[in-house]
Write a structure and sequence with these properties.
29 strands; 7-stranded mixed beta sheet; Acac_CoA_synth; AMP-bd_C_sf; ATP-binding; alpha/beta; globular
C-alpha cells in the first residue's frame, strides 16, 4: 500500500487563504467576469474558467490578447491544424512584435532597478530604456543585423542585457543568452550552432564579493564563432575596459555613440517567428537549441504574470535568475504587465545572507521569485526575515527549479511572511513558461502546486496512456498550446523535436516530469521521470526521499540515483554533511529509519555515501542523470553544462558501491 505522498499537506487546513477583498481585486477575477460577459457564459469560479480555457481554447487565447490590450493584429484564424501535435499553427495570419509590447507598457517612471550584490546599484526610467533600445537598434542594423539574424550574449542580469534583447527583438532578430560563468566550451557548444552576427558580453562580473574578468574567455570563444561581426563589451567592473585583444571588440558606449535616441521602430513578424533560442541542459551531449516563437511567448507570459501572478501596473517584480535560465526570459516579460523589473546579479547570499530580503524592503518588491534550493538554504542557514525585515509590500513568492517540499512551504509562512501567496511553479525551458503554477484566488496547501495553467490541458498519464488522479504519472499536455516551441534549430524535418516530446504518447506532449493530481485539485511534482527510481519494479520519485533526508539538521543536501545491480536497480543516496560531521552508523540508521517510516521500505537506500559536493547545472538544478552515469562509469558528454563538473569525480569508482 502506498505511503503518504511527499506532497500531502502537513495538516488538513490550507497554509494560506486569500481574503475576499484580495480575490475581488485580482486580475483573475476581472478577467473571469469579463470573459463571462463577452461570451455569455457562467464562469462562476476558477474551475469553470479553466475548463472553458481548454475546451474553448481558440476563444480563450484571442480574448486574452484583447483583454490585455496587446499591440498587433491576430488575423482571422485562431488555430489551424488544431488536431495535430506537433503541427498545430496558432494565429497563422498574425503580425506583432514582442519588443513593441514590452516598451508600450513599460512604466514611465522607474522601469528597471539593478543591484549587483553590494557593488553596483542603478535605475533606468521607461524613457531611458526606450532611448537605449533606440540607439542599440540603429547600431545593430549598422552591424548587419536584420530579421531572422541571431544575436548572442554572455551576460549578467543587468539593464544593458534587457535593452540589447529588446533592440534585437524590435528588428525581428533572434536573441540567445547564457551567463558569464559558463566555460568557453559551454558557450561555443551553444552559440556555435546558431551562428550569431553580434555578441554582447561584459568585461567582468561580480560574484560573492569578487570580480571575474572574462575578456580572455570571450576572445577565445570568438575564435570558434566566425560569423560574429561585432563583440560589444559592456563596462561593468571597469569603467573603460581594454577590448583591443577581442576580435571585433567595441565598448558599449562606442557601439551606440554614432546614433541619437529616437522613437524605436518595430518590425512586426508572424506569430511563430523565432524570438528566443534557449538550450537544454546538455548533460547528455551538445545542448539542443529550442526555438521559441514571438506570439506564443508573449501570450503565455502575459497570462502567467497578469492572471496567475496577479501582476498589476506599478508592481515591482523580481526573480533571482541568470541569463542562462528561462526564468530570465519570463522575468523581463513583466514589462508587458506594466511592472518595474528588479534585476539582480551575483550571489543570493552575499555578503551576509540577507541581501535579497534587503532588496525587497529597499525597493518595495511585490513579487519575489526564487528557487526551492534558495528557500531550503535560507532555512538551513537560520534566516528569519519575518523578524528582521518589513516585507510590507510583498504579496507573492514564487518558487521553481525543483520541487518545493511541504516543510519548505511551512518555513515560508513561519519565517518569511504569514500573509503571502506562495506559488510553487513548474514548466521549463521546453515551453519557456509553466504547465502548473499559482492561483492568487485559491488556498495554498503544503507541498502542492495550485493549478494547471489556463489553456493548458495538463494530465497525469499512466504507462498505458490513461489519465489518472491520486496516483503518480507522466506529466502530459493533451491539446495544443501557443507556447509550444517552433522547433529545434538545425532540425529541418522536425525529427529531433518529435522524438523529444511526442514519441511516447502520439499527439500528446510528454514533458518528462513525474506528477500526481491531489484531492484539492492541485499537483505534486516528484522530479524528472527519467530520473525516477525503479527498485523491484516500483516507481519512486527522488523528491520523496529528498523531503525526508533534507529535514535532518546534519544534512545540507542530497542526491539519489538508481544503481543497476544484480539484474535489478538499488537505491543509492549521496549526502553532503554539515562541516565537521562524519557519516557514521548512527547517522545512517537515522536516515534509513526516517525514510522507512515516512515513505516505505522500498525507498530505503541500499547504500548511503558522503560526498563534499553535488554536481548541478548552471541554473542550480541537481543533475541526477550525470551522477548516475558517473556511478556506472559512462561518459558524460558535456560537462560544460555543469556549474561544478569537478564534483563528478567523487561519484566515480566508489568502493562503497562495489558490493
Amino acid at each position: 500500500m502506498d505511503q503518504p505522498s511527499p506532497g500531502q499537506s502537513l495538516s488538513d487546513q490550507p497554509l494560506w487563504t486569500p481574503s475576499e477583498a484580495r480575490v475581488a481585486a485580482s486580475n483573475l477575477t476581472a478577467f473571469r467576469q469579463a470573459a463571462s460577459a463577452r461570451f455569455g457564459l457562467r464562469l462562476d469560479d476558477y474551475d469553470a474558467l479553466y475548463d472553458w480555457s481548454v475546451a474553448g481554447k481558440e476563444d480563450f487565447w484571442r480574448f486574452l490578447w484583447e483583454w490585455a490590450g496587446l499591440k498587433g493584429d491576430l488575423g482571422g484564424v485562431a488555430l489551424a491544424d488544431g488536431d495535430r501535435m506537433p503541427g498545430a499553427r496558432w494565429f497563422p495570419e498574425a503580425s506583432l512584435n514582442y519588443a513593441e509590447n514590452m516598451l508600450a507598457n513599460a512604466p514611465d517612471g522607474e522601469a528597471v532597478v539593478f543591484w549587483a550584490e553590494d557593488k553596483v546599484k542603478r535605475r533606468w526610467s521607461g524613457g531611458e530604456l526606450k532611448a537605449e533600445v533606440s540607439r542599440l537598434q540603429q547600431a545593430l542594423k549598422a552591424a548587419g543585423v536584420g530579421k531572422g539574424d541571431r544575436v548572442a550574449a554572455v551576460v549578467p542580469n543587468m539593464p544593458e542585457t534587457l535593452a540589447a534583447m529588446l533592440a534585437t527583438a524590435s528588428l525581428g532578430a533572434i536573441w540567445s543568452s547564457c551567463s558569464p560563468d559558463f566555460g568557453a566550451q559551454g558557450i561555443t557548444d551553444r552559440f556555435g550552432q546558431i551562428e550569431p552576427t553580434v555578441l554582447f558580453a561584459p568585461d567582468a562580473y561580480w560574484y560573492n564579493g569578487k570580480s571575474h574578468d572574462i575578456r580572455a574567455k570571450i576572445a577565445q570563444v570568438l575564435t570558434e564563432l566566425p560569423t560574429v561581426k561585432a563583440a560589444v563589451i559592456i563596462p561593468y567592473v571597469n569603467e573603460t575596459p581594454d577590448v583591443s585583444a577581442i576580435r571585433g571588440g567595441v565598448t558599449w558606449g562606442d557601439f551606440i555613440a554614432p546614433f541619437a535616441a529616437a522613437e524605436p521602430s518595430f518590425e512586426r513578424v508572424a506569430f511563430n517567428h523565432p524570438l528566443f533560442i534557449l538550450y537544454s541542459s546538455g548533460t547528455t551531449g551538445k545542448p539542443k537549441c529550442i526555438v521559441h516563437g514571438t506570439g506564443g511567448t508573449l501570450l503565455q507570459h502575459v497570462k502567467e504574470h497578469r492572471l496567475h501572478s496577479d501582476v498589476k501596473p506599478g508592481d515591482r517584480v523580481f526573480y533571482y535568475t541568470t541569463c542562462g535560465w528561462m526564468m530570465w526570459n519570463w522575468l523581463v516579460s513583466g514589462l508587458a504587465a506594466g511592472a518595474t523589473l528588479l534585476l539582480y546579479d551575483g550571489s543570493p547570499f552575499a555578503p551576509d545572507g540577507n541581501i535579497l530580503f534587503d532588496y525587497a524592503d529597499a525597493e518595495g518588491m511585490t513579487l519575489f521569485g526564487t528557487s526551492a534550493k534558495f528557500i531550503q538554504q535560507a532555512e538551513k542557514s537560520g534566516l528569519e526575515p519575518i523578524r528582521t525585515h518589513r516585507l510590507d509590500t510583498l504579496r507573492a513568492l514564487a518558487s521553481t527549479g525543483s520541487p518545493l517540499m511541504p516543510e519548505n512551504f511551512a518555513y515560508v509562512y513561519r519565517a518569511i511572511k504569514t500573509d503571502i501567496h506562495l506559488a510553487s511553479i513548474s514548466g521549463g525551458t521546453d515551453i519557456v513558461s509553466c504547465f502548473v503554477l499559482g492561483n492568487p484566488t485559491a488556498p495554498v496547501w503544503a507541498g502542492e502546486l495550485q493549478t494547471a495553467g489556463l489553456g493548458m490541458a495538463v494530465a497525469a498519464f499512466d504507462d498505458s496512456g490513461h489519465a489518472v488522479s491520486g496516483e503518480k504519472g507522466e506529466l502530459v499536455c493533451t491539446r495544443p498550446f501557443p507556447c509550444m516551441p517552433v522547433g529545434f534549430w538545425a532540425d529541418p524535418d522536425g525529427a529531433k523535436y518529435r522524438a523529444a516530446y511526442f514519441e511516447r504518447f502520439p499527439n500528446v506532449w510528454t514533458h518528462g516530469d513525474f506528477i500526481e493530481r491531489t484531492v484539492h485539485g492541485g499537483w505534486v511534482i516528484y522530479g524528472r521521470s527519467d530520473a525516477v527510481l525503479n527498485p523491484g519494479g516500483v516507481r519512486i520519485g527522488t523528491a520523496e526521499i529528498y523531503r525526508q533526508v533534507e529535514q535532518l539538521p546534519e544534512i545540507l543536501e542530497a542526491v539519489c540515483i538508481g544503481q543497476e545491480w544484480d539484474g535489478d536497480v538499488r537505491v543509492i543516496l549521496f549526502v553532503v554533511l554539515r562541516e565537521g560531521l562524519t557519516l557514521d552508523k548512527a547517522l545512517e540508521d537515522t536516515i534509513r529509519k526516517r525514510i522507512k517510516e515516512n515513505c516505505s521500505p522500498r525507498h530505503v537506500p541500499a547504500r548511503i555515501v558522503a560526498v563534499k559536493d553535488i554536481p548541478r547545472t548552471r541554473s542550480g538544478k541537481i543533475t541526477e542523470l550525470a551522477v548516475r552515469d558517473a556511478v556506472h562509469g559512462r561518459p558524460i558528454k558535456n560537462t560544460e553544462a555543469l556549474a561544478n563538473p569537478m564534483a563528478l569525480d567523487e561519484f566515480r569508482e566508489r568502493p562503497e558501491l562495489e558490493g
